[in-house]
Amino acid sequence: MYPFYRYTKSIVKAISAHKKGDTVDLTDTAKMTFRCSLTDIDNFLEMNNGRVFTLYDLGRTDFAIRSGLGKKLLENRWGLVVAGSTIQYRKRIRAFNLVTIKTRIAAIDERWIYVEQSMWVKGKPCSTALLRTGVTKGGRVIESQKVLDALGKSDWKMPPTGYVAEWIESDADRPWPPQQ
Description:
Elements: H1 4-19, E1 30-35, H2 49-67, H3 69-76, E2 79-89, E3 98-108, E4 113-121, E5 124-137, E6 140-141, H4 144-150, H5 162-172
Antiparallel strand pairs: 1-3, 2-5, 3-4, 4-5, 5-6
Organism: Psychrobacter piechaudii
Protein name: Thioesterase superfamily protein
Pfam families: 4HBT_2
């Protein structure tokens, strides 16, 4: 089940932080912490891989609110969408571990905002994900420049380079739908 209580709690905390001046710029890395609960673990007593993606939602929501994007989403009746992702796991997260999610923008192109997220326990990386995200209006992805303009960052550029550009290129070569 989706963790609605935890999601709501993280939104309230992010709004409170934003009001107190604990904001993030588009170039910053946002951090939030939580405990791995019993509802997050699987039969191997570690955080379920699907739950990792769900909890990354909370990190992106925190980033959006604290960066001011959340307010612009409401004002413009915009939505958010994930259009692709890749993840790597390196270390198990066990029940009751204190987990830090780090969220940052890795790149922006004409249409997509590429977000990099990672989970850390005791200063060690456990997983990292790269997500292709977009802002939508009426169910369609809008140009990234409109989002930047709304945030007062019209001149800000962060084109995809390195592994982000390589992922974009390799993902473009992937057949869709998958060949059976």
